[in-house]
Amino acid sequence: MTFFTLIFFYLLFGFVQGFTEPIPISSSGHLVIFQDIFNLKMDDLTFEILVNFASLLAVLVIYRQDIIRLATNGFHFLTKKQNRLAAEREDFMFIVYLLVATVPAGVIGLLFEDQIGNTFSSAKMIGITLIITGFALFIIRNLRGQKADRQLTLKDALIVGLAQSVALIPGISRSGATIVAAMLLGMKQATALRFSFLLYIPISLGTFMLSIGDLLDGRLVELWLPYLVSFVTASVATYFSLKWFMHIMARGNLIYFSLYCFVVGTIAFILL
Question: How far is 75 from 68, CA to CA, in rounded Å?
Fold first, then answer.
């Protein structure tokens, strides 16, 4: 493989990862499908760490105002002994629920992620799990919940957290699983979307912190330019893809993602 071909594939896979990360069509599943199409095994842990961190940065930028508000009000709630505002308590509890929802995927990921990845890593299995994702999105296509941020409960957090752990299976979209669970629990579209992507932050940040050793022991120096290309591409693609998905959620057009998962899942199952 020539150097320019290498750059092309790292750009392509960086774009695929970044663009599909926020939308409910499974970034991990699409990477497997594209590798199968090009007959190229992208067995590069450093690449995975960097592009996931790139997507995390894009999410942090988009939700920066929510993050600053939550951190500020949460800190005030903890440090004040009296005259606590209702908004401060609500934001503190929202943080608590995010942390609770992080636990299932964190524990299951640490214990079983390798076994799950090895079991469901074939293109045919990705086809099946994409079809399952499509059915789940079809179920919630017309739901319009009423539950706002301040009305969330510990039970809601646990259920959404368990849904996120299901997304450890390649082909099951993380954003799709958490949003489906949130919508079935009666959350508003905006609340479901915000909880899903703020929930992405601790799990992604935790994964990155645990992977720093692998990153430093990898091929970072040898392939710094391809990695830089994929990192920039993934971060930009995630930013615009998430902005687009927020617009789609506001309009309630999840049916299109459902149909997409049906089509791509069927093609992957039959042809790959």
Answer: 11
